[in-house]
Amino acid sequence: MLTKSKNYLMEDVEYLLQRAKEIRASDRELADRYAKIAYLTITKNRLKMKREQKLLICKNCNRLLIPGDTSVVRLYKEAVTYKCLNCGKTVRISYAKRK
Question: Is the CB of residue 23 less than 8 Å from the CB of residue 30?
């Protein structure tokens, strides 16, 4: 269970990522700055990233990843790959096996 301070930090991170997605079209540098601040907040305070947050921030260059704009998404038989168009980092996420 998260403490109150960590809950507040998670709310701040969610707000920063939401604002970054909203202003991405008008100001790319500010959106990337918001994403970097959110990532640094998560790593400094050892917070767990949600799945949506993991897919929104490049772990190599700390930029905002928008599919089709700043990243390429490919579907393969065993995994989904996300490639950052800024630094070239590729992340593979395997499909969940269901029985």
Answer: yes
pLDDT tens, residue by residue, 19-48: 999 999 899 999 999 999 999 999 999 999
The domain in which residue 23 lies consists of 4-94
Picking from 75, 80, 67, 10, the residue whose alpha carbon sits closest to that of residue 58 is 67
Q: Point out which residues pair with 74 in neighbouring strands.
A: 81
* 82 close to 93: Cβ distance less than 8 angstroms: yes
Q: Tokens standing for 89?
A: 């980092």
Question: Is 99 a member of any domain?
Answer: no
pLDDT in tens, 44-84: 999 998 888 888 899 999 999 999 999 999 998 888 999 99
Report the amino acid identity of residue 25: A
